[in-house]
């Protein structure tokens, strides 16, 4: 019976996964799912799932199987036509299923045909390190814990009445000895940092920021399935750049002009001070509507990317979000100057429907 239950459960999970994969774009562009995210799982609403089965006409007259039938003949009695007042009975409810972020990342990877990431150099190696975590009653003399041994001997002598306060000599016996014990812990050397940069000038509205929020969530989901540890950093900029926390990054409302180079300068400084290239896999994502202050700053921005960011980054991604107020010129300049670099990915995102295509553009290189 248990085996049958397990088989049925596995079959149900396969059906649910099939439903989710079929509507993956709809789920990825649904901002409500992010609000339902737990620590490692996410709650997804799916339509009611009915397994196909035959239904027979109880009247036993006419229809298919009782003489000649026509195409479209109903196998069962037709349901009542909707009419009259609103009913007072409960309707069919949508089922919510919980699925792990790892499973979602796998589905997205399969749907977009994303290759597994190959971290650079030794950073994809895991090493084992001994860590002293507890105390044992036996062990080698070299690991004997003198302080704990002394305390055990003192407690024993006081409890037995053999402790002499005038001549406090403590003599440990075999039962008093305590030793340090250790276990092997895996120390991953595969570290990754994602630095998100976003334009918050006046031309970037609520709709554009929502696109960035959704895309960043699914980028995080994929990269977390590839690395044991990921650090996240956030930079916002208009004419001036500053580092902010997660909530501020996605919900800040500011205006003003745009100076893209300010974000790249701060990003380069952050990498130099906190994330040395020999120890980190570095992913940079910048989102803007492409409306920069002037051509001189565009040139300056491209110089910083070429000379400071590309040499240290696994991947530099620029996503241009369509805005009614942005010129969009920066994307054209970037494509002409560095668009063919192997660790550069450039995407134009006109609406939430294009988020999946943008993610594939960014992560499809397996960098």
TrEMBL record:
It comes from Candidatus Yanofskybacteria bacterium RIFCSPHIGHO2_01_FULL_45_42. This is DUF444 family protein. It holds the Pfam family DUF444. It comes from the Bacteria. InterPro entries: UPF0229 (IPR006698), vWFA_dom_sf (IPR036465).
């Amino acid at each position: 019976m248990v085996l049958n239950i397990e088989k049925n459960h596995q079959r149900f999970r396969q059906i649910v996964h099939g439903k989710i994969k079929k509507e993956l774009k709809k789920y990825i562009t649904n901002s409500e799912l992010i609000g339902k995210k737990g620590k490692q799982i996410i709650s997804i609403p799916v339509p009611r799932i009915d397994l196909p089965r035959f239904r027979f006409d109880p009247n036993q007259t006419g229809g298919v199987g009782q003489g000649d039938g026509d195409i479209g003949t109903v196998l069962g009695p037709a349901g009542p036509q909707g009419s009259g007042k609103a009913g007072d009975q409960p309707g069919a409810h949508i089922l919510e299923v919980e699925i792990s972020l790892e499973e979602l990342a796998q589905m997205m990877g399969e749907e977009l045909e994303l290759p597994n990431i190959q971290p650079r150099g030794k950073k994809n190696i895991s090493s084992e390190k001994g860590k002293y975590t507890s105390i044992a009653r036996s062990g080698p003399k070299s690991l004997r814990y003198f302080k704990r041994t002394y305390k055990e001997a003192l407690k024993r002598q006081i409890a037995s009445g053999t402790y002499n306060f005038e001549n406090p000599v403590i003599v440990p016996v075999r039962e008093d000895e305590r030793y340090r014990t250790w276990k092997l812990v895996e120390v991953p050397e595969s570290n990754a940092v994602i630095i998100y940069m976003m334009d918050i000038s006046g031309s970037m509205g609520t709709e554009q920021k929502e696109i960035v929020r959704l895309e960043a969530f699914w980028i995080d989901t994929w990269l977390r399935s590839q690395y044991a540890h990921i650090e996240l950093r956030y930079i916002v900029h208009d004419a001036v750049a500053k580092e902010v926390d997660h909530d501020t990054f996605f919900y800040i409302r500011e205006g003003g002009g745009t100076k893209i180079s300010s974000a790249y300068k701060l990003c380069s400084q952050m990498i130099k001070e906190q994330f040395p290239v020999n120890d980190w896999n570095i992913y940079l994502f910048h989102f803007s509507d492409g409306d920069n202050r002037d051509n001189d700053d565009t040139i300056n921005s491209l110089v910083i990317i070429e000379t400071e960011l590309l040499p240290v980054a696994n991947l530099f991604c620029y996503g241009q979000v369509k805005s009614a107020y942005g010129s969009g010129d920066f994307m054209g300049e970037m494509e002409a100057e560095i668009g063919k670099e192997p660790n550069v990915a450039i995407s134009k995102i006109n609406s939430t429907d294009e988020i999946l295509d943008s993610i594939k553009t960014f992560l499809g290189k397996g960098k």
